[in-house]
Amino acid sequence: GAFSNLHGIIFFQNLGHRSWRTPYYKLIHFPPPFKSNHPDMASHSTHFQFAIFTTILILKFSSFPTVMSATLNLDTDKQALLAIKSTFQNIRPPNPLSSWNSDQTSSPCKWVGVTCTGDGKRVVGLNLTGFLLSGSIDPHLGNLSFLNSLQLQSNQITGQIPHQITNLFRLRVLNMSFNNLQGQLPSNISNMVDLEILDLMSNRINGRLPDELSRLNKLQVLNLAQNQLYGSIPPSFGNLSSLVTINLGTNSINGPIPSQLAALQNLKHLIITINNLSGTVPPPIFNMSSLVTLALASNNLWGTFPKDIGEKLPNLLVFNFCFNKFTGTIPESLHNITKIQVIRFAHNFLEGTVPPGLEKLHNLSMYNIGYNKFVGSDTNGGLDFITSLTNSSRLAFLALDGNNFEGVIPYSIGNLSKDLSKLYMGENRFYGNIPSTVANLQGLSLLNLSDNSLSGEIPSQIGKLEKLQMLGLARNQLSGRIPTSLGDLRMLNQIDLSGNDLVGNIPTSFGNYINLLSLDLSKNKLNGSIPRATLALPGLSKILNLSNNFFSGPLPEEIGSLENVVTIDISNNHFFGNIPPSISGCKSLEALIMANNEFSGLIPRTFKDLRGLQLLDLSSNRLSGPIPKEFQQLKALQTLNLSFNDLEGIVPTELENITNLYLQGNPKLCDELNLSCAVTKTKEKVIKIVLVSVLSAVLAISIIFGTVACLMRRKSKDKPFQSRELLKGMPEMISYRELCLATQNFSSENLIGKGSFGTVYRGYLEQGTAIAVKVLNMERAGSVRSFLAECEALRNVRHRNLVKLITSCSSIDFQRKEFLALVYEFLSNGSLDSWIHKHKLHADGSGLNLIERLNIAIDVASVLDYLHNGYDVPIVHCDLKPSNIILSEEMTAKVGDFGLARLLMEGGNNQSSSITSSHVLKGSIGYLPPEYGVGRKPTTAGDVYSFGVTLMELFTGKCPTHESFSGDLNLIKWVELAYPKDMDEIMDTTLLELGSKLYYQEQEIDPTKQYDCFTDVMSVGLCCTVDSPEKRSCMKDVLLKLQMIRATLIRSPNANE
């Protein structure tokens, strides 16, 4: 009935290795909220009468709207309920509150979701769970003075919790979880003295944890998980002696764990995962024998675990300490808790061997010790624990990856639980053959043995794992042919056999993969032609990667059957013949890479039908004829590489809008964009153009250096005229007086913010155009150099994702001092930093969702690619960070603040020379690459590093200088430790909240796709932030990867129907 959920609370346990994707839930039972010893509603004790009298006084004198009558009665409740209804809207019909009407004969006791006292005189319960309501909570809620249960969970309610709710002193159950509430907890929450359940999980509640909560002596459940709370846990929480459950997971709570919590003798569930807790766990916590769940994962806790933990916590079922900094070994006594179900140590610094005793854990469902420093060899019994786990008949999840286990995988692995669903053993030192007994694990949905030294052939018995959805055997030393039996894995959606020594043909049985999303066979020694059945896989929607093999023959016409695939990479093979026109059937294609083959003939004009194509690489083939003018119809195309073919004719002018166009190595091509074409003199004219460009660059350098020198020497009276010389070629300048009028004399009300070299004001020109005026601080050293760098960087560059420079001002102010300013377009949605860290929200109260963040990342990557590759001389931004990324009204991201920008001349050693006057590199701590700290000059790789840090910050919500990072732990290391299986531990809480409700063009996006997207984005971030600049991805590749990730995320399953 209406109170079916009051006898327990469902909370997110964060148990799974990929828990956000496949969450575990736990029902925690506690005594029914309506106990027999509670004061009877019909008979009032003296205390109860006093409470009612107090409530009436509050109602009479409070500031919120009240029904002014002599007494509060059912009519009062009715009017309050109608007021509540008036502020709610139903997201989808039918309206569940249609029975709530003002008809005098309509009793609220008969309304949906409403419960009254036995005599029908007052409303005591309101349960609107899952009614799909939006809107805010009306303050009239405070008039429901007899209410003892309020359940509004699983809606989309926004706004703040009205403070009048604290007048409901009889309230025992308050559940508003899974909404979009914001603001702080009501200041007088301690008035709700009878409260037993407070569940506000998964909202946007912010502020500190109020000490007033410690006065709620009857509180049994405190669930504030997945909000935006910060500050430390009040030690006074140790006074809440009735508490059974504390769940503060996924917030920004910091500081130590108060030892006073150990005084809570009834506490069964202590969950404070995904926060910023620091220090050691107080020893008394490990003595709380009542604990059933102890989950402190994803914090900055350190220390060792007590050896007697198993004796002191005999009732423990869930032990989750992953993503911390614990050292030492696994206590052997932990394996003595025979009823324990979940043990998670992943991503710490634990070492040693796995202790004995696992054979006693018959109820164990998860054992996750991945990414530590555990050792164990088959030669000294160090892998015997795998055999011990065969007694755990309920084991569903086993992760041993990212350690130093060494030896042959024991054949006993086939005796593990039939319920085992996920087996991670990658990134170790396993060698030898894959045991054929793995085929006994009939419940496996995921098998990952990648990144080991496994050899021999792939066991054909793996084909018996009928439930397998993901098979990862990449980057081993596997040889021989691919077993035909793998084609029997009909539920497979991802197979990665790349980076081995496999030979022979692709089995024709691969045509059975009706659910396959991704196929990667790259970097092997496979040969022959592509089976036509493989090219007719209906579900292939992510990637087909056959690159770096020895495939040959014509590309089959059936390739056009791959209607849903995003990326096809068949580069570095021996394919020959014409490119089949049927390629146009790949309607969802975003990237097509066919480089380094032997394709010949004309480029098919049917490419024009690939309307979503963003990258096309046909380089290093034998293609001939003209470039099809139909390419102009590919509006999404950003990279076109036709270099090193035998193309001829005029380059269509329509290609000028393609950001990255590569045509070198086609001597018969004539570039109409820049040359008055004569085929036989193309090379000669190219040389002339290069010489003219170089001379122009030298002249420009001379002007810049001359201007700087003058600016440094001349008195203020003459400076404006020298500054004007620099601004030649830019739009007509604006006067100082006009800027004063536009900004109301640079008033503080129009102050937007302060940058590295100046202050930014909002203003309006006479015609009403909104502008942002960056006024340089002339007293700061380097401000003129900053002005020069920004002018030079923006003088000729044009890109939709650059903040547009409208004009400039070089003058003297009213005090006869030099005044320099740059005038930009005004972007109404402010900086990205304000959205990530200052909780800037959309009008509907929502933050940045996954698609918006991905679009922002692509916008920024696009402009960096343009700056790095769009000109002969690359431009390096040098100070990329969220505060320099501005969002337009349409949420388009634009990069600004070029005060440190540099123009680079390529050198043979890939080092760069600055042609600005800036001698000392400056930037922002946390975003600068490590090589800058040892004196290396800025390069495009430095921008890539800054982008990678910004990308991680955008999706995790943590800045690189966050207080939780210390010692060897930084943002990059934090992400690296979580990748790829514990992404939920680092995901921005806003994304976790929105995870189950994300739409694109009215199509709901599956949470699994969202998780995959986040994981893939973090992979890109890690590729950008490797220490060696030579090993970092280039922006061109980064942009492509992000575009492919977005295409996969937003593709509708019915897109091609």
UniProtKB/TrEMBL annotation:
Residues in coiled coil: none
Gene Ontology molecular function terms on file: ATP binding; protein serine/threonine kinase activity; receptor serine/threonine kinase binding
SUPFAM superfamilies listed in its UniProt record: L domain-like, Protein kinase-like (PK-like)
Binding site residues for ATP: K774
Residues passing through the membrane, by range: 689-712
Record keywords: ATP-binding, Cell membrane, Glycoprotein, Kinase, Leucine-rich repeat, Membrane, Nucleotide-binding, Phosphoprotein, Receptor, Repeat, Serine/threonine-protein kinase, Signal, Transferase, Transmembrane, Transmembrane helix
Predominant cellular place of this UniProt entry's protein: membrane
Family listed: Belongs to the protein kinase superfamily. Ser/Thr protein kinase family.
Annotated InterPro entries: Kinase-like_dom_sf (IPR011009), Leu-rich_rpt (IPR001611), Leu-rich_rpt_typical-subtyp (IPR003591), LRR_dom_sf (IPR032675), LRR_N_plant-typ (IPR013210), LRR_R13L4/SHOC2-like (IPR055414), Plant_LRR-RLKs (IPR050647), Prot_kinase_dom (IPR000719)
Source organism per UniProt: Cucumis melo (Muskmelon)
Enzyme Commission numbers on file: 2.7.11.1
Protein name: non-specific serine/threonine protein kinase
Matching CDD domains: STKc_IRAK (cd14066)
GO cellular component, one term: plasma membrane
Protein kinase domain residues: 746-1045
Localization of this protein: Cell membrane; Membrane
Family matches, as Pfam families: LRR_1, LRR_14, LRR_8, LRRNT_2, PK_Tyr_Ser-Thr
Catalytic activity: L-threonyl-[protein] + ATP = O-phospho-L-threonyl-[protein] + ADP + H(+); L-seryl-[protein] + ATP = O-phospho-L-seryl-[protein] + ADP + H(+)
Membrane topology: Single-pass membrane protein; Single-pass type I membrane protein
